[in-house]
Design a protein that fits this description.
There is one protein chain. The chain folds into two domains: 3-120, Rossmann fold, CATH 3.40.50; 125-264, Cytidine Deaminase, domain 2 (3-Layer(aba) Sandwich), CATH 3.40.140. The protein is built from ten helices and 13 strands. It has helices at residues 13-20, 46-55, 79-82, 85-94, 96-109, 117-120, 138-156, 179-189, 221-229, 247-257, and strands at residues 3-8, 25-29, 39-41, 58-64, 113-115, 129-131, 162-166, 169-173, 201-204, 218-219, 234-238, 243-244, 260-264. A six-stranded mixed β-sheet has the order 6-13-11-9-7-8, with helices on both faces. α8 (179-189) packs parallel to α9 (221-229).
Length: 266
C-alpha cells in the first residue's frame, strides 16, 4: 500500500485513524473543526488539492470525521473545480449519502483510492455480541428489532442513521442535528411519551446501500452517558457497520451506569 492521507473532519474519529496510520499526512477543509494538526485546503480548490496529493506521492485517502456543508465563495473557484459544481449541487439536493458518493467519485477520478475505516483501523468495528457486563432483556431485543426496521426505512430515504424506541414506540428519529441532539431531546421531552415502566434503546446503523467508505455511524462514551440521561436501557448498533470509539472507556461507562452495549447481527 502506498502513502495514505487522512481528510479529517470534527470529532474523535480522525485521531483514532491517525493512531492506526502512524505518520499519515492529515488535511482538513477550511471552516471544518478538526482537533488534529492539519494542513488546510479549500473546497473551492478541490481539484488542485487532489492533484497536489497525487504529485506528492499519495495513493489513497481516508475520509474520517464529521463534515459540515461549507459556505462556498464563488470568487475562489478554479476552473476545474467550478466544472464540478453542478454535479455536487445535484448530489447535495439528493441527500448526504448522495453527496458523499459524488465526492468519492471525484477523488477516484483524480487517481486516488478511497479506503474505508475497516481497511485501515478494523479494531474500531466490533464483532457481533454484547460488550460489557449488562445483558439486554427480551423487551430490549424486541425494541432493537423494531428500531432496526425504522432506521432501515429512514436510511432508504437518506434521512438518518439512528432512532430511539421504547416498548415498540419510536420516541425520536435522528435527523440533521445528529445523535447527541436526539438523545438530549429524549431526555428533555420524551419522558411523558414513554409507556409506563418502559426504558427503551438507541439503535444506530448505516443507511441501506450506503458506501461504507465514508460516514459510518460512530458511538463512544458520550453516547452512553446521554443514553443513561435519557433513561434508556442500552445502546444497540448493527454489527459490522458502526464505529466504536474508545471502546474500553465506553464499556466501563456502560457498566458503571447499568446500560448494555449490543453489537447486533443485521
Amino acid at each position: 500500500m502506498g502513502r495514505i492521507a487522512i481528510i479529517a473532519g470534527a470529532g474523535a474519529l480522525p485521531g483514532a485513524v491517525a493512531a492506526a496510520l502512524d505518520g499519515a499526512a492529515v488535511f482538513a477543509p477550511e471552516g471544518v473543526a478538526c482537533a488534529l494538526p492539519a494542513e488546510r485546503f479549500r473546497f473551492e480548490r478541490l481539484v488542485p488539492f487532489l492533484r497536489h496529493l497525487v504529485e506528492d506521492g499519495v495513493t489513497a485517502v481516508v475520509l474520517a470525521g464529521a463534515m459540515t456543508r461549507p459556505r462556498l465563495d464563488p470568487a475562489l473557484f478554479d476552473p476545474a473545480t467550478a466544472q464540478l459544481v453542478p454535479r455536487l449541487l445535484a448530489a447535495m439536493q439528493a441527500g448526504d449519502d448522495a453527496t458523499l458518493r459524488e465526492v468519492i467519485a471525484v477523488i477516484e477520478e483524480a487517481g486516488l483510492e478511497v479506503l474505508g475505516i475497516e481497511a485501515v483501523a478494523p479494531g474500531l468495528i466490533p464483532a457481533p455480541g454484547v460488550l460489557g457486563a449488562v445483558q439486554p432483556g427480551d423487551a430490549d431485543r424486541r425494541d432493537a428489532a423494531r428500531a432496526a426496521a425504522i432506521v432501515a426505512a429512514l436510511g432508504a430515504a437518506d434521512v438518518g442513521q439512528g432512532c430511539v424506541v421504547a416498548q415498540g414506540l419510536c420516541l425520536a428519529a435522528e435527523a440533521l442535528p445528529g445523535t447527541d441532539a436526539m438523545l438530549d431531546w429524549v431526555a428533555a421531552v420524551a419522558g411523558d411519551l414513554r409507556p409506563p415502566g418502559a426504558r427503551g434503546v438507541i439503535y444506530k446503523a448505516p443507511k441501506p446501500g450506503q458506501d461504507r467508505r465514508a460516514d459510518l455511524p460512530a458511538l463512544g462514551p458520550v453516547t452512553v452517558r446521554k443514553a443513561a440521561a435519557a433513561g434508556l436501557a442500552g445502546v444497540v448498533w448493527q454489527a459490522g457497520g458502526v464505529l466504536v470509539l474508545d471502546r474500553a472507556a465506553m464499556v466501563a461507562e456502560a457498566d458503571r451506569l447499568g446500560l448494555f452495549l449490543w453489537s447486533r447481527e443485521p
